[in-house]
Each structure stands twice: as C-alpha cells, then as structure tokens.
C-alpha cells in the first residue's frame, strides 16, 4: 500500500519539471540507498518497495526526481542528500535493473554485436532509425543463439545497447538533463561532477574504474567529434554533435590522475537577451543600450572570467544585428548560433603534422574574412595575434564584437596592449568603442551572472599613458540593479553620424526599451525563435510594432 501511494506521487513529479516547483518536488521523493559509485544505480519496483517498507525515513534524503530522455525505459535522475558527498548532495542516475544472468547475456550480446553488426551509413536516415535497426538485430541474435532472456526483459537490453552503441554510454542520461550545465571527469576512480543550474556543483554516482575503460571512452568522444586524440596529441578541444563544447585529455602525461573530459552543455534553445533580462543579468536599459550600439555597428568587447557567460551574452546581443548585414564569425569551436541567413560561420582547424602543414588559425580566418566584405566580424574569443588584425578591420569601418578573458576593465586593456596581442594604444582608442564586463558572483547561497560594468573608450592621457574610460552602467550590489551614469559618448557619436538630435536618440532608445520590456513580460515570447521573430518585426517597422503591442505613449 505504501509503495502504491509513492508510485502515484512518483508519476506526478515526472510529468513536470521538479526544479520549477521546488515545494512540490520536496514533497515527492523516492528512496534508493545504493551507494555503489562504480556504475549508475539501478531502479526496480520490488527493491524500492522493500527499502521503503524497511525504512521510510530514507525517503527524506531525496530532494528531486525527474525523467531523462529515455521515456520508454524508466530512466530517472534524482538529487539526494548525501553526507558522504562534497557539499552534502549527490546526483543519482537511476537505470533499469539487470539480473546477474541478464548482465552476462548482455555482455555476450555486446561482444557479438561488435563482430556481427554491419552498418551502411548511407542507409541510416536518423538516430531513431539506427536504434530501431539495433533492436531488430538484438532480437535476431537472441533467437539465433538461443540466449535465455525473457521477452519482458528485452526493453532493458535495448536500453543498455542503445545507450552504449548509439549514444554517449554511461554519461548519456546526464546529457539529457537540461538543468546540467557542465559534466566533468577528473580521472579514474573519481566520481563525475556536474554543475547544476539550481543546485550547482555536486558529485554523481557515475565513475570510471580503470585507465583503459576511461581512455577508450575519451577516444570514442573524440571520434564522435570528428577529432583525433593520441599520446602524441593528448589535448583536444572540440564540439559534440549536439553543440556542446568539450575538452579532452588522454592518459597520464598531461593529467596525472588519468584521462579527463569536461563537457560544457549548452541548452538546445539558445539563451536570448530576454532570458538575460528575466534573470537580471542585464536590465532593460542595458539591453536597449547594447541594441543601439550593435544596430549602428559600433565595436565592443565582452570581458569576463571562466564560465561567466561571455559567449552566451555575445550570442544574445548578436540577434540585434540588422537583418540585412553580412556577418562573418570566427571561432576555434563552434558556439555561436545566429538567426541571420547572411552569416558565414568560420572554424579554425588543427594539424597533426610536425611542420604545422594544413593548420588554419583564427588569424588566417580573419584575414580571409576581410576579403568576404562583411558588415560585422565576430571573433568568438580574442587571445592572440588575431587581435591586431581584428582592430585593423574595425578601423576600416567593419563592426566587430569579441570576447576576452579578464576580471576587470583595466585588466582587459592590459591584456590587449601586452604580449601576445600587442594592440597599439593609438589603434585601440580609435577603433574600440565599449567594453562590457560580466562576472559570475555569489549572491547569498547561489551563483549568478551579472553585467558588472559597461565602459566607453573616450581618449588617451599622454601624461600617464593610460586609456581614458567613461562608465555608462554599473551594477549596484545592494539593490541588484544596473545604474545609468546619465551620459554616453557613443550616443553623441551615433547622433552625429546619423544627423539626429539628443531628443531623437532618447526616443529611439525608449522604443527599444519598451519592446524589450514587452517581450520580457510576454508569456508568448519564450523561445529563441520567438525573440528573433519579434526583433525582426521591430526592424521592419518599429512604430507599427509598438502600436500593435500598444506600447506607444
């Protein structure tokens, strides 16, 4: 009886996002005290029932339970209180159970599939098609070799085969949780860690037990990305097919605990400027300011530390680029996702030869971009000699944006003017218009991302040799609000270029702010395509857009 009640509650919580309703998810829990970190724990009703009836107090350890991407196989993810875990919480993967006999049969099937499975890639239409073919092959092999597997257990065998042969193996359930931002493996016999969007960093119950097992998995990840990792080339940066960014290391030469991988898991639907407003990363005033600068092809750098959201903000403000403009983006790993048709995404290429033959760097791509007649050049991250060429391109009238690692505006300028970038100060002050600083900070018991400051480049002090800055926006920690200084040199520059008065500039900013606030408050504007469609509609006829939304005063 107790289990039936729990089962009903469990079904209810998996139909919704438990993290969106914390109170409900705290009431709905599931008990599983398995602590084996060598492989994901298993879930079956009989074992859960026995544990609950023996000790119902353990139910209090579970904070949330949610479904993963395997709707037909009973795979769940749970966050539980665990005093043995760093931080007191652990992320648990709950998978279908296999008996010892089923496990042996599955290992036999796995080995036979490695030998007998023959696939013509031209016949594979989709992943779903590949998985259906795999299921049929498994059924035929069970019948062919007379394996003692009950038909009701076929779905369990299908799950593990699909997980290991067509997806990401034991980490695949983690890849399906949109609340996970990062997956990190630090070596063998160490639990994988995740960064959860609500509960932050915590260990999981997934672990690689030996070097060979982990090295084979790292090679598989590299192959999936179309890359090669070896002892001669043990460090790889790449992009997974779903767009996630990954860094791999192989063996003990560069990482003493063994092979490692770190996956930065991006949301399927890109974060937009409206999402940033709703999360208070930027205010509507800051967003309207950025819109006005981007629209008028002014140049900007987005500075910040690791995981501060630089690329996310860069991608979000790129939606403000006028639809007719031609864009060329340059990246080492593809992360930008722009809605524009007239866009050339360029990716650098590594080489595996001793002489560097065939390597294409960001510098090479930037030089090529100048011959492609772009209106806007976006460099995913400025870190080397391509900085000088980028600023030269800005000096010729191209709009340009990029991100850079720095923890303050001053350190950003120091990096730009020092080795290896060595951008002359005279070139920097005449080409760079603004620098945005975004950081990841602690507020109470949670981490948040905030645009801390936006400064404009206004000149050069010959006596001190320093670049002069004018702060336009600053974040106030006490109120958690962005305060406008009341002046912007860039507004005057745009007004002079377009022949506008200050009053007209103020009106244009007000229109954009009203449009952004309407989008942020609208329940119909949730996805990136809806935000982009609204911005395109605004560009088509701003007054009509505002009138239709009844935003004109």
Structural summary, described in words:
There is one protein chain. The chain is α/β, with parallel strands linked by helices and 553 residues long. The chain has 4 domains: 2-96, no CATH class; 113-170, no CATH class; 172-264, Beta-Lactamase (2-Layer Sandwich), CATH 3.30.450; 273-498, 3-Layer(aba) Sandwich (Rossmann fold), CATH 3.40.50.300. Helices cover 37% and strands 22% of the residues. It has 19 helices and 19 strands. Strands 13-12-14-15-11-16-17-18-19 form a 9-stranded mixed sheet, with helices on both faces. It has a 6-stranded antiparallel sheet with strand order 7-6-5-10-9-8, with helices on one face. Helix 5 (127-145) crosses helix 6, helix 10 (284-295) packs across helix 17 and helix 12 (362-369) packs parallel to helix 13. The radius of gyration is 27 Å and the shape is elongated.
């Amino acid at each position: 009886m107790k289990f039936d009640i729990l089962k009903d509650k469990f079904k209810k919580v998996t139909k919704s996002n438990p993290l969106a309703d914390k109170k409900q998810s705290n009431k709905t829990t599931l008990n599983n005290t398995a602590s084996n970190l060598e492989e994901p724990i298993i879930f079956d009703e009989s074992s859960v029932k026995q544990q609950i009836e023996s000790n119902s107090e353990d139910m209090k350890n579970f904070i949330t339970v949610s479904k993963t991407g395997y709707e037909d196989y009973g795979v769940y993810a749970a966050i539980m209180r665990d005093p043995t875990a760093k931080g007191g919480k652990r992320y648990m993967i709950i998978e279908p159970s296999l008996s010892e006999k089923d496990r042996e049969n599955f290992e036999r099937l796995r080995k036979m599939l490695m030998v007998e499975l023959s696939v013509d890639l031209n016949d594979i239409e989709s992943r779903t098609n590949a998985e259906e073919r795999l299921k049929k092959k498994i059924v035929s092999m069970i019948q062919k070799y007379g394996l003692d597997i009950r038909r009701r257990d076929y779905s369990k065998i299908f799950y593990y085969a699909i997980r290991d042969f067509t997806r990401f193996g034991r980490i695949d359930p983690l890849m399906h949780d949109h609340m996970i931002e990062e997956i990190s493996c630090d070596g063998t016999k160490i639990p994988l860690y995740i960064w959860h969007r609500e509960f932050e960093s915590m260990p999981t119950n997934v672990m690689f037990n030996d070097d060979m097992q982990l090295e084979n998995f790292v090679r598989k990840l590299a192959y999936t990305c179309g890359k090669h990792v070896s002892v001669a080339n043990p460090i790889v940066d790449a992009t997974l097919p779903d767009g996630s960014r990954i860094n791999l290391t192989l063996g003990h030469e560069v990482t003493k605990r063994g092979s490692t991988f770190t996956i930065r898991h991006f949301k399927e639907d890109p974060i937009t400027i409206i999402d940033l407003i709703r999360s208070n990363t930027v205010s509507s005033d800051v967003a309207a300011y950025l819109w006005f600068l981007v629209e008028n092809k002014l140049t900007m750098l987005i500075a910040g530390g690791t995981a501060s959201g630089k690329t996310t903000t860069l991608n979000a403000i790129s939606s403000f680029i006028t639809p007719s403009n031609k864009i060329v983006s340059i990246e080492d790993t593809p992360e930008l996702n722009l809605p524009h048709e007239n866009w050339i995404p360029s990716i650098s290429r590594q080489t595996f030869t001793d002489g560097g033959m065939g390597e294409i760097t960001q510098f090479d791509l930037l030089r090529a971009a100048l011959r492609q007649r772009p209106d806007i050049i976006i460099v995913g991250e400025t870190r080397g000699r391509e900085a000088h060429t980028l600023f030269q391109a800005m000096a010729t009238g191209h709009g340009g944006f990029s991100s850079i690692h720095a923890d303050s505006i001053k350190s950003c300028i120091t990096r730009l003017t020092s080795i290896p970038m060595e951008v002359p100060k005279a070139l920097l002050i005449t080409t760079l218009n603004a620098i945005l600083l975004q950081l990841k900070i602690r507020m109470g018991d949670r981490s948040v991302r905030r645009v801390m400051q936006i400064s404009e480049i206004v000149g050069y002090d010959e006596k001190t040799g320093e670049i002069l800055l004018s702060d336009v926006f600053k974040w106030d920690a006490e109120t958690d609000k962005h305060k406008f200084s009341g002046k912007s040199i860039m507004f005057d520059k745009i007004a002079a270029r377009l022949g506008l008065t200050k009053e007209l500039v103020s009106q244009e900013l007000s229109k954009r702010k009203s449009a952004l606030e309407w989008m942020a408050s609208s329940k119909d504007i949730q996805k990136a395509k809806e935000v982009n469609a609204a911005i395109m509609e605004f560009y088509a006829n701003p007054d009509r857009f505002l009138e239709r939304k009844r935003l004109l005063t």
